[in-house]
Every structure is written in C-alpha cells, then in structure tokens.
TrEMBL record:
The keyword Ligase applies. Keywords: Ligase. This is Long-chain acyl-CoA synthetase. PROSITE patterns: AMP_BINDING. InterPro entries: AMP-bd_C (IPR025110), AMP-bd_C_sf (IPR045851), AMP-binding_CS (IPR020845), AMP-dep_synth/lig_dom (IPR000873), ANL_N_sf (IPR042099). Residues 405-480 form the AMP-binding enzyme C-terminal domain. The keyword Ligase applies. Residues 19-348 form the AMP-dependent synthetase/ligase domain.
C-alpha cells in the first residue's frame, strides 16, 4: 500500500507516489542498480524523500541516509563505507559536501541544479523519465542503512540481514510490534527528520497501512496544533524537545485548537524527563507512549501513559518477541533491582550487521543478545529502568552525538594538545555539548577559534556550545582524561544525570 501525503498544504495522492516510484526505479535500473546494492540520500523531509524510500524498499535496494547537516568528510565516509552507487541530494546542500562525493557515485539533484553539482549530475524531474521500468524484484522490509557513531569516532552502518525468502511470519510479527509502538490510524503526523532511524520506521509503518501522512519539513509548535485540528490527525511522532516547544506556547495558543482527534503520540530516541512527560499527559491526555530501542536492536520495551504513571521513569516492559536481560560483567543474570548492563533481542526483527565491521558486531553480542552499553535494572514486575547510557554518548534533542567523533576532528586543529567533549544539561534539548581544550605550550587558542574550526568540518549541531580552555586537563593515573571531573560541576543540583 502507498500513503497519501500532505506536505506544506499540498496534497500528493497515492497515484502521484506510484508514478514517482516507477520513475525512480527506471532511473536506478539504468544505473545498473540491483538487489542488495546501496543508494544514498541527503535530503530534507519532502515527498521526493518519501518516494525514494519506498522505491528502494520495492526494488530490494538499501538506502543510506546522510544527515543533511553533514559536511564533506562526514558525507564521504558514509558514501564510501556503504558503497553507494548513487546519491540523491537537495541541490542547495551540494556545496557543503561537494569535496566528499566519490567520482564514481551518480548524483541526482532535487529541487533544481546547483553550481557545485558534478558534470554528470542529473536533475530529479528528468531522472528515469521515458526509460523502461525496473523488472519486478523482491522487496526489503528493512531497506534503510542507519549510520550510528561509536567510540572510535567513525559512524557504523547498521544493515538488516534480509529474512529467508517466503518468511512472511517475521514480517507479520514485526508489523505487530510497530502497531504497538506507533499505533494504527488513518492520519499520522511526522516532522522529525526522515534520516533518523525512528522517523524512517514511522514513515514505513504508516506507508504500509496506506494512511494519510501529514509531513512537515521542520517542526513548528503552533503549526503542529493547527495541523492536528485541520487534518484530524490521529497519530503523531514527537520527541521531548518538541514537547518543550509545545508547552512553551502561551496558554491562549495552546487552547486555540481542537486536538481531540489524537489517539496516540509516540516518543522514542531520548529519555523524557518525568515532569515534562507528566505535563504532556495532563494536556494531551493518557495517549503519550514511549519505547526503548536502537537502530541495532529495534524496539524492545514499551510503556503507555497508564503504566508510566504507576511506574514513573520506567522505559516499559519487554514487548512481544523481545528478550530483555540485565547481566553483570561476567554475563550472569542479575536479580530484580540490581543495576547491570542491558542486553536485548527483538526476535520479530531480522538480525543485523555493521557494514564492513564484523568485529564490532561480534563485540556487542552475548548469548544471542546485544548490548549498546546502557546500564539499568528490572523491577519485580519486569519494568525496565535505564540508569545510564554509553559512557560518552550524548542525546541532544533526540539526536545521538558521540564525543569521540568531535574530538578526533579537534585533535587536528593547530595548537591543540588534547581535548575532551562531554554533555551538559540543557532545558530545551536535554543535553548540550561542552568542550575542554588544552593548548600546546605557547599556543594561543580561544573558544571562538575552536568553534569556527569545527564548524567548517562537522555539522553545526556537533559544535560545542561551551568551550573552556585549560592549561592542564584532569587525568587519571593512567593518563586518561578524567571526564567526570569536567562534567560533574555542570550537573550539580540537577534531578537527573543524563
């Protein structure tokens, strides 16, 4: 089934979507793209992005999404690591990544041509036009390759291993999981960026249902309320940062629109502070849900408003087909109430691999379950509580940011001897970035220069908001930087540690 789209107050019926999908597939066939190959997208939310996503699923192609904030080095890694055959990119984004596009990658520009486009680039409106359609291929239930960073500083591509031919039972079980996490409805709202794995799965779920999808290029709190009323939206995907912006609206603006059509608001991707979640329940009603998951493991726990109010702070209980265990360092199971490493498996979801990184995939598995380094415990009723995340990962506005990636770039700055990047509390985004920098003896380094250096090389959202210059960074006896001593002063007096 195909969705009907509303985008910037324009209707894109399912017939439009079918026509675009066929044209995209004809163009990809002409590029000799076949099942199992990869194409890449660096696009803002748009009907074209939706069409490309659904075309790749139908053709058995993998789609590697590139965050549209990325710069040349970041984009080059994904395009090279994923072996992308083609790149679909918004024309105005080309300049910031032009130096990172490998010469063999076909380029298709969306929303017009650009001066930075390679000579062989094609325009979206002409791509595939007049060509014979691609032959029927076996589709992929999970066609997205999600790149998630790690402690090495280089993003790793998470790619699903296709289920065995004819294994329809797995797809049905996975659909049931998505029904719980996102709900089943006629009209769904999405303003989160499609390049994010959760937004991509939300898009896929409601596309499979043939629903009407109200897609926005970006989130605007007041407009969101107006759209809910106008389209009688039944389901929405919102993250805590969006909750903050909704609640910040004046009372008269919040009361202006009828939101009674909403039946479920799904939130995933970052922890939601208890007062913020309670405020949303008080306003929207007991329709706020939350799920714990990851690109690697999928969704493994779920909690609705009623259970959350009985178990505040919990990430929920294990979902159907999911296994959630708390293990000690030796792999032994821990009893209820004891904190350990969270290991999970969602058996309704096919297994995964890290692109070109089998050793990294093997390193996180134990007894058929995987861990991403999150610490937590289960209570007597099986509700999961997350106490800490990976040692260094930061979630800002629902986006995972890994300090090692930023530090690896900062180490190349002239005059920098060493550095540490860490998370500090932020009222709107949950966490913000701070950096501590130690200059080389005699070097003159200031905060503005550090931020400018990083802004030229990495996405702006990865540039630390605060940069402190230290003549000596605190270190452990081993010489490793003592990040906790840098981080803890910012978190004093806070009700949470992440």
């Amino acid at each position: 089934m195909l969705p009907t789209l509303w985008y910037q107050d324009t209707l894109y019926p399912s017939e439009w979507m079918e026509s675009e999908i066929r044209r995209i597939l004809a163009g990809l066939h002409a590029l000799d793209c076949g099942p199992g190959d990869t194409v890449a997208a660096m696009l803002r939310n748009s009907p074209q992005y939706v069409a490309l996503t659904l075309a790749c699923r139908r053709a058995g192609l993998y789609l590697a999404s590139v965050n549209w904030h990325f710069k040349a080095l970041e984009a080059e890694h994904i395009l090279t690591d994923s072996s992308a055959r083609a790149l679909f990119v918004d024309a105005d984004l080309l300049e910031q990544i032009a130096g990172g596009i490998p010469g063999h990658v076909a380029v298709v520009t969306v929303a017009g041509n650009a001066a930075a486009a390679p000579a062989h680039a094609q325009d979206w409106t002409a791509f595939g036009a007049g060509l014979p359609p691609m032959p029927a291929r076996a589709g992929l239930v999970h066609s997205a390759i999600t790149y998630t960073s790690g402690t090495t500083g280089k993003p790793k591509g998470v790619r699903r291993i296709p289920p065995a031919p004819g294994d329809f039972a797995s797809a049905e079980r996975f659909a049931q999981v998505m029904d719980i996490v996102y709900g089943r409805g006629d009209v769904a709202f999405l303003a989160a960026p499609i390049y994010h794995s959760a937004a991509m799965s939300y898009l896929g779920h409601f596309s499979n249902l043939g629903a009407t999808l109200v897609l926005e290029p970006r989130f605007d709190a007041a407009r969101t309320l107006a759209l809910i009323e106008k389209h009688r939206i039944t389901h929405a995907y919102l993250v805590p940062t969006m909750y903050q912006r909704l609640l910040a609206l004046p009372p008269e603006a919040r009361a202006r629109h009828d939101i009674s059509s909403l039946r479920q608001v799904a939130s995933t991707g970052s922890p939601c502070p208890a007062p913020l979640k309670q405020a949303m329940i008080d306003w929207f009603g007991p329709i706020i849900t939350e799920a714990y998951g990851s690109s690697e493991a999928g969704y493994t726990t779920f909690i609705d408003s009623a259970d959350w109010q009985r178990h505040p702070g919990s990430a929920g209980r294990a979902m159907p087909d999911a296994d959630v265990r708390i293990l000690d360092e030796g792999g032994g199971a821990l009893p209820a109430g004891e904190i350990g490493l969270i290991h999970v498996r969602q058996r309704a979801l096919s297994d995964f691999t890290y692109v070109n990184r089998p050793e990294a995939r093997a390193a996180i598995e134990r007894d058929g379950l995987v861990t991403l380094g999150d610490m937590g415990y289960l209570d007597e009723e099986g509700f999961l509580y997350i106490c800490d995340r990976k040692a260094d990962m930061i979630i800002s506005g629902g986006v995972n940011i890994y300090p090692a990636e930023i530090e690896s770039v900062l180490h190349t700055m002239p005059g920098v001897a060493d550095c540490a990047v860490f998370g500090i509390p932020d009222a709107e985004f949950g966490e913000a970035l701070a950096a501590a920098v130690q200059p080389l003896p005699g070097a003159q380094v200031d905060a503005a220069a550090v931020q400018s250096f990083l802004r030229e090389r990495i996405a702006n959202y990865k540039v630390p908001r605060i940069v402190d210059i230290h003549q000596q960074l605190p270190r452990e006896d081993t010489g490793k930087i003592f990040k906790r001593k840098l981080r803890d002063p910012y978190w004093q007096g806070q009700a949470r540690a992440i």
